[in-house]
């Protein structure tokens, strides 16, 4: 138990909780959240902080800075840990989307 009598979350369950919370962060152009688009590549957690690795659908996404900040603040609120977002170099493609998410686009 933590000092405030809440059970301590494991890293896996906290990572899942953060990922679920990030479903609230929507790409305004595509109308889909960053998780279903496959933009969240990894979530790293240690005792003192969280780090998220993410990519954008395009390197020059006009909403990129706002999406990154929204991901950071949403994850920080969910984890109650200082959170940073690191941009990956991987190029996004529609196959990175969650299974079934591309159906609305007629892709899968």
How are the secondary structure elements laid out?
Elements: H1 11-21, E1 26-27, E2 32-33, E3 40-45, E4 50-54, H2 64-79, E5 83-87
Helix pairs in contact: 1-2
Briefly, what is this?
With 108 residues, the chain is of the alpha+beta class. Helices cover 25% and strands 19% of the residues. It has helices at residues 11-21, 64-79, and strands spanning 26-27, 32-33, 40-45, 50-54, 83-87.
CATH homology superfamily: Fe-S cluster assembly (FSCA)
CATH class membership: Alpha Beta
Give the overall pLDDT as a whole number: 87
CATH architecture call: 2-Layer Sandwich
What can be said about the biggest beta sheet? 3 strands, mixed
Elements, N to C (H/E): HEEEEHE
Strand content: 15-25%
Please report the distance between the alpha carbons of the first and last residues: 45 Å
Percent of residues in helices: 25-40%
Strand order, sheet with most strands: 3-4-5
Query: Based on helices, strands and strand pairing, what is the structural class?
Result: alpha+beta
Low-confidence parts, pLDDT < 50 over ≥5 residues?
1-8
Radius of gyration: 15 Å
**Count of individual domains:** 1
Report the strand count.
Answer: 5
Please give the count of helices.
2
Indicate the overall shape: globular
CATH topology: GMP Synthetase, Chain A, domain 3
